[in-house]
Amino acid sequence: MIRDEALGLFRKITALHTEPVLLVAADSQVLAANPAAVRLLPGVEDDVPLSAVVSESADDVARCVRQWLRTGHPTPAGLTLHGYDGLRLRCRCFGARAQWLSAPTVHLRAVRIDPGDRFLTLKERVNALERERTLRFRATEDRAALNASLATVRARLDHLHTLVVALAAAATPKAVAELVAQHVPTVLGCARAGLYLTDTAPMDTDLRIPVPPHATLALTADAPPAAEHLESVAALIGGALERF
Fold this sequence. Notes:
Blueprint: H1 4-14, E1 21-25, E2 30-33, H2 35-40, H3 58-69, E3 75-82, E4 88-97, E5 105-112, H4 118-169, H5 173-188, E6 192-196, E7 207-211, E8 215-220, H6 227-241
Antiparallel strand pairs: 1-2, 1-5, 3-4, 4-5, 6-8, 7-8
Helix pairs in contact: 4-5, 4-6, 5-6
């Protein structure tokens, strides 16, 4: 806990400062404010966290406080102070550890900066570059995911085309059944596929799909294939059987 005499010393040191000066604890709590800060920042005397009087997030404020606690020399950081009547004041805040106090505390002085300030311009440029980097990274991830999806669709279409060509060349129902066992697992992503021309499909198969007029497609798969894929494959097989 900051001793009363230490707070009194802070007020004495900063009383004549025309710029806002704050004393901030290691947990980002505002412990004291000079008269200039009280006149500028509503609520700063009400034992509030520093994040309550600035626009930046509590995480950003905590990061700044940790940085200032590690140095005895005033180190700048950009913060936007909340003035009266909704006024937003962009400031360069110089913070350093208050070495005249035993407890870990930050002595913070805020200097208002104009839009052409080099520090602000550089910080905004860095922030813009970081946003652009993030967008590019996300775009790269999205493009990779899209390319993977397109590759999957293209591979399935190639396998489906191979099945269509093979079924078109089948000369007997038995040949159709052999082609189903050879090609359908690849098309539907299942372990095994069998075409039974009578109702003799094994009961231990995962899926039994009727194929008009008199066949059954039996599949063994870890997960059911998509319904539309099953429908299209069953239609192709049924069309091949209708020729006999």
